[in-house]
Structure formats: C-alpha cells, structure tokens
Design a protein that fits this description.
mainly alpha, single chain
C-alpha cells in the first residue's frame, strides 16, 4: 500500500524521467549506428558502445539539447516574475499580488534557508533560476566540448588539420547548433503561453478551467 502511495505521489516525475531515459537510450543506439556508418564510409575503425559514449558525436548531440532546455526554463522562470499575458494560464494575474510575491515567513515546516535567514534566504529566494542557470552553463560547456571534439574527429577522419577551442568558439557551426535549438524552445514556450488563452485541457494545471472566459487571466 505504501509503495502505491509513493508511486501515486511521484507519478509525474517518474513517468517524465522514464520517458527521458527511453528517448536517451533510443538516441544513443541510433546515434551509435549512424556514427559508425559514417566512419565505415571513410574506412575508419568502428566504435564500440563505451567508445561512442565518450565520442564528440554523442556528447555534442546530448548536451546541445539539454543546454536549450535549461536556458528555456531559466528565462521562463525569470520572465514570468514581471511579465504578463492576458488570458494565459501561464501568466500571473494582471493586477494585485499572488502568493509567490509575498515575503517568506519562517515557520516550523518552512525550508531550512527560510528559517536560517540572511545570505541563505537571499540565495534560496532565487534558487530555482540559479539552478537552471548553472545547469545551462554546464550543458553549454559540455556542448561546446562535444561539438569541438566531434568536429576534430571528423577532420581527422578526412585527414584534415584539427582546430583549437579559441578558433572553434567563433565558428558558425557551433552557434548554428545552439541557435537552432534555442529558437525551437522559445517557440514551444510561446505556443503554450498563447494557445492556453483559447484552448483547454480539462484536469491539467497548465490549462484554465474549461468554462473560464478567454480574456480572463487565472
């Protein structure tokens, strides 16, 4: 019974993480096969699974996407503090303050930074955006590392000279990889912000009540 309660209480995160791992596995397998096919075309040795996991091809592809996701979430958290969209379920009310705007008050069940106060509370007040920001920077650096490594691996496969990080950071290839993902993430955010004005999904916290007027902001 306790196991069922645990699964029920955490079902959303469990399902989403499971879907991520399934897709990551699919990416790994298909990426491994694709990369080995490219190596075979150039008469180069094929990679085993462990070698592919450390290849620039896999690292670049993985963190290129993670980077854009964390950037999207960081900016969305920050922008929704002060910006509004009339009628959207993703926006705060156009007037007045909400619970998230009030000053934190220490109480027995409050998180420990709230009880501690001082610098810990100041950091905790913005810990969500800070966490997404750190995850974005880490993913950005790993994307750059993987992209550079993948580029140089391609160069070596073609018997061409490799490049340095200083030169590659100014290369259009790396920024093309980033911008093509960033724009899609902001499009997705804009879609839910705007579509939730007129469209509904009964039972979802991402939707307004089905009978709520379009112009009303929850």
């Amino acid at each position: 019974m306790s196991e069922k309660r645990f699964l029920y209480r955490n079902s959303l995160s469990i399902v989403v993480i499971a879907l991520m791992l399934i897709c990551l596995t699919g990416q790994f397998i298909t990426g491994w096969n694709t990369h080995n096919a490219e190596l075979a075309e150039h008469g180069k040795p094929l990679l085993d699974a462990a070698e592919y996991m450390h290849s620039g091809h896999f690292i670049q592809a993985t963190f290129e996407n993670w980077e854009s996701e964390f950037l999207q979430m960081m900016l969305y958290v920050l922008l929704t503090v002060s910006l509004r969209q009339r009628g959207s379920s993703e926006s705060k009310s156009l007037e007045g303050q909400e619970d998230v705007d009030r000053e934190p008050v220490s109480h027995p069940d409050a998180p420990w930074p709230v009880k501690k106060g001082g610098i810990w509370l100041k950091i905790y007040r913005h810990s969500l955006s800070l966490a997404f920001g750190l995850l974005f920077m880490l993913s950005f650096l790993l994307h750059f590392y993987g992209s550079l490594k993948d580029f140089n691996e391609e160069q070596m496969a073609k018997d061409k000279p490799i490049t340095t990080a200083v030169h590659y950071i100014a290369d259009s290839r790396f920024w093309f990889e980033s911008f093509q993902n960033w724009q899609s993430e902001f499009l997705a955010v804009a879609s839910i912000v705007i579509l939730s004005i007129w469209l509904r999904e009964k039972g979802s916290p991402e939707s307004k009540p089905v009978d709520m007027p379009h112009k009303e902001t929850p």
